[in-house]
Here is the input.
Amino acid sequence: MIPFFKSQKSPKSLEKPAPAPPSAPVLRVSDHLAEKAVHFFSNGVAKEDAFKALIGSLELSEPEKAFDEVMARENLGNTAIAPGILLPHARLSGISGVRAAIGIALQGIPKGGEEAAHIIVLFFSPLENRQEHLAFLSSVASLFQAEHIQEALLGLSSPTEVLMKIREIEKGA
Amino acid sequence: MVLSQKKARNVIVVSTAMLSFISFWRASAIVLCDMASTVYYIGGIAEHAIGKAAPWFILGVMLFAYAVRALYMESCSLFVRGGVYRVVRQAEIALFGNRLGGMTAKLSVSALMFDYVLTGPISATSAGLYLVGLINTLLPMANIHAHLSSNFFAMLFAIGVTFYFWWENTKGIPESSDKALKIMIATTVMGVIVVAWSLLTLALRGFEWPPLAPVFGPEAWGWLGKFKGSIRPLGLLGITMAFGHTLLAMSGEESLAQVYRELEAPKLKNLKRTGFIIFLYCMLLTSLVSFFAVMIIPDSVRLSQYSDNLISGLTMYFVGPEGLKLFFQAFVVFVGFLILAGAVNTSIVGSNGVLARVGEDGVLPDFLRKPHPQYGTSYRLINLTVALQVITLLLSRGDVYMLGEAYAFGVIWSFVFKAMAIIVLRFYDKSPREYRVPGNIRLGNREIPLGLVTIFLVLFFTACVNLFTKQVATIYGSIFTAVFFTVFTISEQINKRKQGHVVPKAIEGLTEHGHVDPVNMTRVDALTPEACGVSKPNRFVVAVRDPGNLVHLKRVLKELHPHDDVDAIVMTTKVAKSYQLEGDISKPTEDEEVLFTQIIAVAEKAGHSVIPLLVPSNDPFHAMAQTVYDLGANELIVGKSGKFSPEIQMEHIAIAWGKVRPSSGAPLRIRIIWDTSEYKEDIR
Here is the structure.
C-alpha cells in the first residue's frame, strides 16, 4: 500500500455550508386517530376482514378502492414493522391528510403462516404528499419503540384508553 | 426481525482505505523533492561528460521535460493510477490482447524500478559529498589537519540516510506532504539567494557565456570511442549524445503519476497547475545554477575540486566576505541534505507504489504484499527496495558520476515505454480524455498525434544512443531489468496457478486478475464519530453493496466542492444470519475486498476522501439508519434496490429511521440515486 499523505486543507471557510434538511411535517400518530377508528378484534378474524373493518371506520369515499390499494401494497412485501405489529398502508388521491385506524387483537390475527399480528395500524396518506407518508411511517415506527407498548395496548379495553395511552407515550417521548 | 438498538455494535473501520487528498502546492512539493534535487549533482555529472556546454544541454532537457510532462498528464486523464505500468499494460492489451502476457509492461516497470532504486543512492551520496565537502573546508579553519575521504564518507552517510527512511516508511509517513512543502520553501530561499548573488557576482566581475559545442570526456564516448573523429559535436549524433548525458536532469517525472492519485479535486486542473509549477521551478533553478557554476567557478578548480558539490563551489566564488560565503555554503549543504534526503524518501515511496501496482496484477509473489501487522504498510516491498539501494551504494563506493550514468538508463527507457504506450492508446482507446498532448494534425478523417510521435522519437533515439555511450548504465541496467523481468514472470506464473476465484472483469479499478486493495480492518465496538474519524460539521452516509453499482457514490462525490467541510461516510452491511455473525468478521470476504477496492477507486478519481465502514447487521435498513444516527449525519444516499421499487425502499428507510431516532424527531434527507434519476425526501 502506498503510504497516504494527510490532507492539509488551507484554512478557508466554507462558502456555502451543506444544507440541513428543511423542516418537514412533525406527525404525531395520535393526531390522526379518532376513537371511532380504534377497533378491538375478537378471536378468529381474518386479516382481510380486519382491514375492511378498519377502512370502514375511516369514512372514505371509495373504501373498495382503498382496500385494493392496501392489498396491492401487502402483496409487494411484508408491512410488519416489529413482531406482532402490522402497518398496512397506501396512498390515495382525494384525501387531504393522513387517515389512520388501529386494530387490537388480543388473540392475534393470523398472517398465513407468519407470526400473528396483535396490533394493526392501517393508514392512508395523500397521493400527492410523499413526505407526509414517510413521516407518518417513521412516527409509527418510533411510537412502537416505546418499551412494553404492545403489552400496554393489548391490556386496554376501550378506544378512549387506547388513544390516551398513545398520546401519553408520544407526549413523554 | 431487527437487532436491539440497545446493544453495542461491532463496527469495522477500514483504516488503510481512509484516503486523504492534497493540494497542487503539496503535490508540486512532493514531485520537486525528487526533480529539483538533481540541481545538486547534475551540473558536475553533465560537465564531466560533455564539458562546459553542459548548461545549454541542461536547459534543453528542462524545456523538453515540459513535453514529457504532457505525456503524464494524458496518461493521468486516462487512468487515475496512470503510471508507466498501467499505461503500457493497457497499450499492450489494445495491440496484442493477452498474447504477450504483459511482457512490455513488465519490461517497462523493470526499467522504472532501476530508476527508483538509483534515485535514492545518487541523492544520498550527493548529500554526503556536499557534507564532506563542507567538513573538509572547515577542518583547516579549525586547525585540524585531516581530510575525510569524500567517496567513502559519502557512501557511509548515504547508507545511514537510507536506513533512516527505510524505518520511516515502514512505520508509514503521514506527514510527507507537510515536510515536502517545508523542504521546498527552504530550497526556494536557497535558490533565490544563489541566483541573486550569482547575478551580482557576474555583474561585478563580468562573464563569458559557456560554449555551445560539447567536448566529450573519455568515459562519455562509451562504445562509440572509435568513432570519435567522425562524430561532430553539434551534429545530430553529437547533440543526441550530449542530450543523453544530461537527461537525468528530468528524472522524477514518474512521481507525477504517483502523486496524481492523492491530488484533490478538480484533479486534472490541479495536475496541470502542478506540472507548470514543476516546469518553471526546475527550469529556473536547475539550468540557472548550472550556468552560473560554469560562468563563475574557475575552470581550473571547477571539476577537480567541486564536481561533486558544485553549488558549494559556486558559493565560495561569489563576491563578498569569506565568512558570509562560508555561512551560506553551510546553508546550501543543509538545504541539500533536506532535499536530497527527501528524494531518498520519494524513491522508496515511488518504488513501493510501482511494486504495489504490479503486485495487484499478480506479478509479484503474494508474500511480498502482506501489510505490516502493526503499521499496515507494505513493509516487504520497502525492504526489497532498500536492500537494492544499499547494495547499489556498496557497489558504487560513493562515485556519484557512476551512479548518474547508471541512473539515466531507467529514466530514459521508462519514458520511451510510456510515450510508446500513449501513442498506441491514442489509436486504440477512443475514450474521451480531459487532456491530450498537443500537436495533433487532422489528415482527412484521421488524426495524427504529431506532438506525441515527436516526443517519442526524441526519447527513443536518445535511449538507443545511450545504449552505446553509457556502458555502465547499459550493462547494469540490462542485468537489473532482466532479473526483475524474470522475477515478475515467474511470480505471475506461480500466482496464476494458485488463484482460484474469478472476479468480474468489467468493474472499474480491477485488473483482469481481480486484484484487490489490501486493507487493514480495525474493529470498534461502538459506532461513534470519534472511533470512525468523523469530525466535520456536515456528514452524509452513502450505503453501498454492489461494486458494479456505485453510481450514487460517484454522483455525490462529484457534487462536492474542493473545500466543502464534509465527511463522506461510505458504509456497507455485513449481513448476519440471526443474531450472530459467522466467521472472523475482522477479515473481509472476497466480495467485500472487491467492494472496498471499488470504493477506493471511485474516491481517488473524485479526489475526495471517504470513510469506509463495514457494519454487521441482519437488517441493512436498520444498519443504515443506525449508522446515520450514531455518526450524527443528516443525509443518507443509497442506490436503487434490485428487490424493491424506490418508493418501497424509501418506506423501509423511513421505518428504520423512526426506530432509531428519538421521537422528538431528528431530520433526515434520503436520496435514492440511480442512472440519471433520483428520489429525494426529507423526513422527520
Notes: Chain B has a mean pLDDT of 83. Residues 103-141 of chain B form the longest helix (39 residues).
